[in-house]
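Folding Task

Wanted — backbone structure
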Amino acid sequence: MLAFRSATPDDVPAIVALVESAYRGESSRAGWTTEADLLDGQRTDVESVAALVADPSGRIVLASEGDAIVGSAHLARAGDRAWFGMFAVRPTRQRGGLGHALLAECERIVRDEWRLARLAMSVIWTRVELIEWYRRRGYAPTGETRPFPYGEPRFGLPKRDDLHFVVLQKDLR
């Protein structure tokens, strides 16, 4: 049975392993969407995830089945909206509704616990299939873009020079 909870410091290594498997390398190709064709290198690391877990202005939400973490997402408060990111579902579990359930739980937290009306995210512009998945769930492009952090290998090693993020947002009221 799928259960949701907030991450603790003890979860950090498992979160890093899940995120890396869902975003980079051959393991990510088992799912329906990947960044493996866009970026090499790491997606995150133990220090970065530990800092997110410790940050009182945010939360990493975990989806688990028994003792196994099968999904994770980071939420961060920023003014009158929250940001959604580092969304990962175990690649072999994608296409089964788990991601949709985790996203819905994150929306519930932002709306009902944090009392914020909007949830935003940034997605690499070339990930059209992922952007369309979010659009089917009510997220719309804001017209805002953000630069890709070229030259910062802790975010990955780009395989192309035209990457940037588009911002999507959903009104949760």
Remarks:
- The first helix runs from residue 12 to 23.
